[in-house]
Specification:
Layout (H helix, E strand, L loop, with lengths): L1 E8 L3 H12 L4 E5 L12 E2 L1 H9 L11 E8 L5 E12 L2 H14 L3 E4 L5 E4 L2 E4 L3 E8 L6 H5 L10 E10 L7 E5 L6 E7 L4 E9 L7 H11 L9 E9 L8 E2 L2 E3 L15 H22 L4 H27 L2 H13 L1 H12 L6 H9 L2
The structure holds flavin-adenine dinucleotide (FAD).
The site of flavin-adenine dinucleotide has 37 residues, from helix 1, strand 2, strand 10, strand 13 and strand 14.
């Protein structure tokens, strides 16, 4: 059996940042993933600028090298209102095959041990957790995504309909014209949208996602919606179609218990409005890794869940309350139309809504008032 201070299950953005933060805090860390890297992960590959701030705090630079920032966003509301504006810092589109591999490499460079291993069983004893009888650790961080086995071991089911979305993505030839991120929503099936995010290498990440409300959504249905909403895309020339679930932050389990904590999608940290999850993954991963290293040093790991809960509440608590309110308001398409009209008129409204949708921004009274006036 291999023994570590901290074992991280899953090497996506949540797991790599958790491993890095724990290692920077002085812990002996193993990072486990069922795949070898580089590996693909179905995603829109849209990386908000705030993600790079979190990574810089962990000493990771140049993650976006070779992938230019996309300078503008065009958004169509369910009622057909359009806002097209420059982005204050630009959003990058970096294929996850590249982005996640760069983060794993940074963790390994910092001294994290990587092992290819699919975790199946999680067993506790008094002062450690044992994974598959093979790896023992004082603390285990479950960063194993939407189908997390660590979350199951904590007794939490997956998100139910109404709090779970399904999306499909592919790589298509980039549409003609200056590079911009395009998001087109749909009347009738709202909340749902199609996207086209140019990568900068002649391709665009394109896809469509929708909230699950009980019935099954087929691949043919998702593809047809994408084609209808973005008819200028060359879908016949697209490759690598893959779908995946998105557990939304409107139904989150407790962040941890005993020596187990959850981060990223395993903790249902996906924005219910935009489907953004990478910012939350790197923030929660960093907090989990920091809490793990601190707990190992102070109590042998016993108080990791309490430390992590406090850190999450401080960093994301108010924002997640604002997102929950936004998600409830946003179910009303007329309000979304009004928000898009307000964002078209006013850069401050645009920036505030972007901060709520892509990072840890909060709504404010001035923004709400400007939206209500445009109803
Ligand atoms: C189609 C689609 C489009 C999206 N677009 C965007 C977007 O443009 N921008 C954005 O910010 N977010 C987007 N998201 C959300 C984003 O992909 C996730 O929020 C993000 O990947 C979460 O990171 P994570 O590290 O928590 O989990 P993941 O990235 O899912 O990583 C989990 C890792 O755990 C590993 N693993 C799983 N089970 C085990 C096991 N039992 N043992 C060992 N390893 C295991 C997996 O191999 C994987 O490497 C999108 C999601 C989908 C489905």
């Amino acid at each position: 059996m291999e023994c570590f201070d901290v074992a991280v299950v899953g090497a996506g953005p949540a797991g790599s940042t958790a491993a890095l933060a724990a290692r920077r805090g002085g812990a002996d860390v193993v990072l486990l993933d069922r795949s070898d890297f580089p590996r693909d992960k179905p995603c829109g590959d849209g990386i908000a600028p705030e993600v790079f701030d979190v990574l810089a705090g962990l000493g990771v630079a140049d993650v976006a090298a070779g992938y230019p920032a996309v300078p503008a966003l065009r958004l169509v509301s369910p009622g057909g209102e359009v806002v097209a504006r420059r982005l204050h810092a630009g959003t990058h589109t970096i294929p996850r095959r590249v982005f996640d591999h760069r983060l794993v490499a940074a963790a390994v460079d910092a001294g994290v041990r990587f092992r290819r291993h699919r975790v199946r069983t999680v067993a506790h004893d008094d002062d450690r957790v044992v994974l598959d009888g093979r790896f023992a650790a004082r603390v285990v961080i479950g960063a194993d995504g939407a189908g997390s086995v660590v979350r199951t071991a904590l007794g939490h089911p997956t998100n139910p309909p109404g709090h779970l979305a399904l999306a499909i993505r592919g790589y298509a030839p980039a549409p003609a014209g200056p590079p911009e991120q395009r998001i087109v929503t749909i009347p009738g099936r709202w909340p749902a949208y199609a996207w086209s995010f140019p990568i900068g290498d002649g391709r665009a990440n394109v896809g469509y996602g929708e909230l699950l409300t009980g019935g099954a959504l087929t691949r043919g249905y998702l593809m047809a919606r994408l084609g209808a909403l973005l008819p200028d895309l060359d879908l016949a020339g697209a490759t690598d179609w893959r779908g995946h679930h998105l557990p939304l932050s409107t139904r989150r389990p407790s962040p941890g218990r005993g020596r187990l904590v959850l981060a990223g999608d395993a903790l249902s940290l996906i924005n219910p409005f935009t489907g953004e999850g990478i910012f939350y993954a790197v923030v929660s991963g960093t907090l989990a890794g920091t809490a793990a290293a601190g707990a190992v040093a102070a109590t042998g790991g016993a108080d990791v869940a309490a430390r992590y809960r406090r850190g999450l509440a401080r960093r994301l608590g108010a924002h997640l309350r604002h997102t929950a309110v936004t998600a409830r308001l946003g179910r009303w398409p007329r309000l979304v139309d009004a928000a898009v009209r307000a964002a078209r008129d006013d850069q401050a409204v645009f920036d505030t809504l972007l901060g709520v949708g892509l990072a840890d921004g909060r709504l404010n009274a001035a923004t709400l008032w400007r939206i209500i006036r445009r109803l």
